[in-house]
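Moderator note: this is an archived Q&A kept for reference. The question asked for a predicted structure of one protein chain; the sequence and the answer are reproduced below.
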Amino acid sequence: MLISTIEPRNLRDVRDRALVTVVYDTMCRREELVSLRVEDIAEAGDGSGSILIRRLKTDATGEGAAVYLSPMTLRFLKGWLSQAGIREESIFRRVAGDKAVGSPLTPQVVATIFRKVNAAGTAI
């Protein structure tokens, strides 16, 4: 996975790296991705973890699903949360300037991030 070799230059890069690796592990849709919450992350003893995707498009019963996160993804995700100072609610949020963390991302902003990552040649 090439994304693991990228050294983030700023907080936005840290977020984008975590976002891309979460998508790789979970295969969730943009709408599901922006609804992920800190409270739904569970760590396992081996360095891996899981995250609850509460609203699945294909979930007829509305139960959601806990999805595996690799140790690398969990490390990147925890790094983003720590550096951004996020302790609750939405995981993926806007970054303004160098360090200002704002409102939750929208599915449209996620699409823009994916295009940027793809154009930079950092495909996974």
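Archived answer notes: The first helix runs from residue 11 to 26.
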